[in-house]
Amino acid sequence: MKLVVAIVHNEDAKVLIDVLLKHEHRATWLHSWGGFLKQSNSTVIVGVEDDKVDEIIGHVRENCHSRTQTVSPIPPIMEPGEFFLPYPLEVEVGGAVVFILPIDRFERI
Ligand code: 2BA
Question: Which of ligand 1's atoms lies nearest the C-alpha of 96?
Fold first, then answer.
């Protein structure tokens, strides 16, 4: 068994969860926070049999889309007389960042 951990855009998480449930998978939606952008994102975790992992990744691929986001850099600590012209920086986020972890043991109690 594997744990698929997918970090996705908030707007894609609901659609992804709906698709997973429609295909009779169980999933958990965690609200998370990107370390670089300091913006909210979503972590979807799915425990599945090994032979279902590719299907789950297929659903993620179909339903999670990349986006360009603009970040305003934090001004550095300035010495008197120094100049800093902040300019927005564009980064491409996602479609999804996916980790696949082995599960030693699974129990529903
Ligand atoms: P954030 O950390 O907020 O990163 C958002 C996007 O900013 C990243 O998109 C990437 O394009 C860019 N970025 C991140 N760190 C950077 C850096 N040091 N320098 C330049 N650009 C940087 P994605 O790679 O698609 O990542 C989307 C979100 O997935 C991340 O949000 C983070 O929450 C998670 N993530 C990505 N890689 C991870 C990893 N190795 N471990 C844990 N979480 C990860």
Answer: 25
What is the model's pLDDT at position 45?
Answer: 98
Determine the Cα–Cα distance for residues 105 and 23; give it in Å rounded to an integer. 23
Structure-block tokens of residue 16: 């992804």
The whole model's pTM is what? 0.88
Of all protein residues, whose CA lies closest to atom 6 belonging to ligand 1? Answer: 93
End-to-end Cα spacing for the chain: 17
Ranges of each domain in the chain: 2-73+84-102
Q: Which of 51, 52, 44 is nearest to 14 (CA)?
A: 44
Q: Who contacts 19 (Cβ-Cβ below 8 Å, separation ≥6)?
A: 59, 62, 63
Whether CATH 3.30.70.120 fits 2-73+84-102: yes
